[in-house]
Write a structure and sequence with these properties.
globular, seven-stranded mixed beta sheet, homodimer, 508 residues, four-stranded antiparallel beta sheet, alpha/beta, 15 helices
Chain lengths: 508, 508
Amino acid sequence: MTESWVNSAQRIGVDLHLELSGPGGRRAALTRALRGAVRSGRLAPGTRLPPYRSLAADLGVARNTVADAYAELVAEGWLTARQGSGTRVAVGVVTPRSGRRGSAEPQRHAAAHVPEEAPAHVRGPRHDLRQGTPDASAFPRAAWAASYRRALLAAPSEAFGPGDPAGRPELREALTEYLARARGVRAEPDRVVICSGFGHALRLLFTRNTPGTPDSPDRPGRPGAGGVLRGPLGVEAYGLGFHRHLLAAAGVRTVPLPLDEDGARVETLGRERAVLLTPAHQFPTGGPLHPERRAAVIDWARAREAVVLEDDYDGEFRYDRRPVGALQGLDPERVVYIGSVSKSLSPALRLGWMVLPRRCVGPVLAAKGEREAWASVLDQLALADFITGGSYDRHVRRMRQRYRRRRDRLVTALAAHAPHIRVTGIAAGLHAVLRLPPGTEGPTVSAAARHGIALDGLAGFRHPDAATGRDAERDVTVDEGLVVGYAAPAEHAYGAALEALCGVLPPG
Amino acid sequence: MTESWVNSAQRIGVDLHLELSGPGGRRAALTRALRGAVRSGRLAPGTRLPPYRSLAADLGVARNTVADAYAELVAEGWLTARQGSGTRVAVGVVTPRSGRRGSAEPQRHAAAHVPEEAPAHVRGPRHDLRQGTPDASAFPRAAWAASYRRALLAAPSEAFGPGDPAGRPELREALTEYLARARGVRAEPDRVVICSGFGHALRLLFTRNTPGTPDSPDRPGRPGAGGVLRGPLGVEAYGLGFHRHLLAAAGVRTVPLPLDEDGARVETLGRERAVLLTPAHQFPTGGPLHPERRAAVIDWARAREAVVLEDDYDGEFRYDRRPVGALQGLDPERVVYIGSVSKSLSPALRLGWMVLPRRCVGPVLAAKGEREAWASVLDQLALADFITGGSYDRHVRRMRQRYRRRRDRLVTALAAHAPHIRVTGIAAGLHAVLRLPPGTEGPTVSAAARHGIALDGLAGFRHPDAATGRDAERDVTVDEGLVVGYAAPAEHAYGAALEALCGVLPPG
């Protein structure tokens, strides 16, 4: 088929014909045609594209077809979309016409030098399957803005002065109620301390130099002064490198605990002073900590006067059975419970919380400083309103359904296209682990990168001191694999990402 | 005069008569009567007081008289005010009826144990004349909420994903334009880095352990690894102890520069690697850095390949002559310019910025981490809208007028009641310095505290290594004094605070 784009093109001052031809449906053809027009320079950087409905009418296609094609090209970096200013050709795209790599033969030049993948200047991969980020396109803008406004207008004046480092009382009360109800956390508002995320919590607990305001001129932060907690710290053999590095920077030695199908083997804990666990959904391998191990680690902490740090990073997102309650509920005086809105709502808010054993509250507040120096007080007030008004529950419920559907689509796609690949850790969370045959993880991650797919192999999560391969005592269930985040893509981009993923998996 | 409070009391279920008698006007009498009712337990904690207009009608006084009395008692901590739930007797007030210190003789007990000052559980002094905080009651709630909503609805989806540690481009562009126009800063958006305030900026520049996300698994933060800048660092002989402690915690040695009437004596700089200055309005003594010294410190930095840190903490608030432009304008490659909204808008937002020499941008971003871990991205978007829409300028203009009036009232009150006290540093900013005779600073600060006035003496700002008293070469113009912040009280509470201040000054 061949169709022209005359009316819309005239409206935007571009003389251009689009040819909707070639393999695939109309959406694929339109995407290809637009991409070609940008690559060749016929659509110059900054040019505004016609609204969906105009182009759809001109081409005789459905409006959604145009919307999908635009979205795909935005994801690829060829176009940019901005509310209020429509969709435009990305500025900075290297095209013959933009003169960055001037050429007398635009078409050939483009074909030779511009890759199918996103242009180098544009951030973000074509298919984002990285773990750790929720669907940014699903942020509940209107409900959040309403909460923010309501909270701002109702706040007492002192809320706009220097903040209490514990956090706003409204938020600590709202979290106390919510965490008890949704996660089985046993909290009181005066044991809750607000922070700007999990990393901030770790810093407050372990950093030797007082990271906040020294609490008096007589007690300046001294290099070498002790943190609230001390190492050595037991950690799961697989976890976020960011956390390990942060702890290393604070001078805390970490000792890896082996993992098996029941989670971290906490019976290997010995002289550690604390242990950091992801009991609801081991990160990244995906299983919950077995109930016997939950009890055992509490027993260990009591016997050793040690502390368990509970990283409840995605506890709200459980799909196939009843939620695993917080470990903290077993002994609030032995567990530091840490959570944030980074997965449930957005990492853009920089809001997290700790529920602390009573004896830790004073030291943590002293480490934080005399005044709130980090977390936005106004966002704290908004979150309190968002929780107490029921919007947080509604949003979590909606996202749980969305992520569950995506999880199901991933499992279905793998069953159809790569039935030899085992997928684990899917009962909860925003990611799954695809187990790979020995020797294939590195090549698969590289192949994915070449195809514009961003994802992580398991290797990057492995503690450098963790045993690899077979363990003398028991099977080590984790070895090679891909950590596939299914939350990050916008809804319309997920299908293409799955398709691309299936295309790079090692053959059976 | 004796009046009863029957109607209102019935409405709130309290059987109570208020006696408006004794010295002073009706406002003082009503304040005294209400305070007495709370102290004696006749008004129980949590009791809701009648609306202004009802009580005013019942007592036959002006509505403002009631409003002022309530406000005074809120400031003292006896009452709490919350939009939507009215004014109530503070919960936690120790009264006979609350049973905390049970007594058979309420009246005598209250008289014996409850002080005139605010109850111990309540935060905040009766009269807050501390430096460093703007008038929290003047936060532009409606305009800010409008900016927030507008920014939120217009933001691209990626704004709700992981943030760029440089900060939102919208805000960096808005600041570039604003700082050039209002402060003479020579910036480009890609030399602006957003942070959560001045303390965060200092940490990013000097902390040895990488304080943010390590940028790759191969480069974990190491204890002992260098910060972006190094000491020794020249600092003004008077400054915030918080900054000195933070630097000490980062292992940075600070060397005090003497101050005279032209500001910091930068000619004493030698082998320091950097110097931290408050050129527009020396903190806390109050003068601007002399133009010759501005030039001299830039010359020094160029010759030594050193860096000047410019703390422009209140540069917008200048009353009596043209603004002193930023030192940064003299040499953007030798000056790190640091500002925040903490004085201009509110410390509750936790938003600040650095304008960096180009060679520092990469290292500061590496120190900050791979993703924004601190400053709320949504507040960043709101601030960008607030600036570009003109609301920021309007708010600063309004507050400049308000603070200028307060400054004038302070000067007038001192001229009338303590003409022997010299007041300096009043051409700009949110505080003034009252010079005191030798030996009187400590006793005056203590007397102020006894009278419920919170303020600081100069002693707490003096660098421990700074020479005190007379200097061999020149007069040291700073010795003993009070740092009086005139921004913190709400508008209605300022008069009483001034009056109380004048009552505790040493006699002439």
